[in-house]
Input
Amino acid sequence: MLTGFAWFGLGIFYGIGFCPFTDWHWQALEKLGKHDLPYSYIKYLIDRLTGWDVNANVMEISTIVGFFFAVIMSVYMNFLQKKRKQSD
Output
C-alpha cells in the first residue's frame, strides 16, 4: 500500500512512479560520485547485480505488471479466499 501511495499519490506532485526512498538513495549515490542514474531503482538493481544494461521501458512495464499482479493476488488471497473458506 505504501508503494502504491508513493507511486500514485506522491506521483501527482513528483511524477508517477516517484519513491522517496529511491530519491534519497539517488542523492546519496550522487554525493558518492555516481551520475547518470536511471529513473527506475529496479533497473538500477538489475543492471548492477547482473552487469546487463536492461532496457528501461521493459523494466518499467515489468515493474508495473509485477506491482498490479501482487495487488490482485493480495486481494484474492486476503479477501476472496477467506470468504470462500468461511462458507465451507
Remarks:
- The chain has four helices and no strands.
- The two ends are 30 Å apart (CA to CA).
